[in-house]
Amino acid sequence: MTKFQFKSQETIPLRQKIATDIRNAIIQGDLKPGTKLKEQEISEQMGISRGPVREALRDLEAMGLVVSLPYKETVVADVQKEEIVDLLLPIRLQLELYAIKYSLDHLDEDIIRTLEAIAERMEEFAASGNIAGLVEEDIQFHEKILFIHSDSTYTQQVWAGIVNRMRLHFMKNTSRYSDLARMPAEHKQLIEALQSRDFVRIKEAWEKHIRDEDCLLYL
Q: In 13-164, where do the E strands start and end?
């Protein structure tokens, strides 16, 4: 009879815990773009020394979530219309279409059901006006698309480089929707396109989805 053993517990570095707390506050909208992040103030609130806070802020800067200028305070990063229109949205569109084109053979009913469940949660968050929840489900939907095929390592690497900037964009601009219910409805249309297995139709649906998102920036 095999003796029972508890699983070993991972020790999460303090800087990682701090970075996660600050990151969550940013992507949930509790810390707005331009908010000053003072090491001393954060360390006092958390009851820790300034060293791990400084390291965590450096990690967040590498993620694109904060900006630190020499001899100035660190602030929560912002994302401008030009970056979204000319860089982030085109990269995202091509990334997702690439992933779909070469992963259609792996698109099964389990994945479709997962996407449908995400769309349903989006409906719930839209109905309650929960922007942060809606944004996170939106991100999860598109990550599921990108990760249909587990061998798409490079696709995942590129996505990792822009996903936090996309989060800032979503948190900043999702509230511009006059009707939040439109977001889950659009994602259900994307699912219908995927179910057709017709890449031309899928491409048209994705391009329309991105164009609609682009239009938010001009409201």
A: 36-37, 66-68, 74-76
Within its chain, how far is the Cα of 17 from the centroid? 19
- Confidence bin at 125 (pLDDT 50/70/90): very high
The residue type found at 49 is S
How many whole angstroms separate alpha carbon 193 and alpha carbon 199?
8
Q: Is the pLDDT of residue 44 over 70?
A: yes
Residue 15 CA: distances (Å) to CA of 102, 126, 155: 38, 34, 28
d(CA 26, CA 34): 11
| Pair of tokens at residue 163 | 């996903």
Rounded Cα distance between 188 and 192, Å, is 6
With contact defined as beta carbons under 8 Å apart, do 74 and 57 qualify? yes
Q: What is the pLDDT of residues 168-183, one digit of tens each?
A: 888 888 777 778 898 9
Question: Which tokens sit at 50?
Answer: 């300034």
Task: Give me the residue label for tokens 């996309």.
Answer: 166
Q: In 63-108, where does DSSP find H-type helix?
A: 81-83, 89-101
> 52: how many CB neighbours lie within 10 A of its CB?
20
Backbone angles phi, psi at 76, to 5 degrees: -65, 135
Mind listing the pLDDT tens digit for each residue in 79-106? 998 999 899 999 999 999 999 998 898 8
Question: String of b and e for 152-182 (b: at least 16 CB within 10 Å)?
Answer: beebbebbeebbbbbbbbbbbbbeebeebee
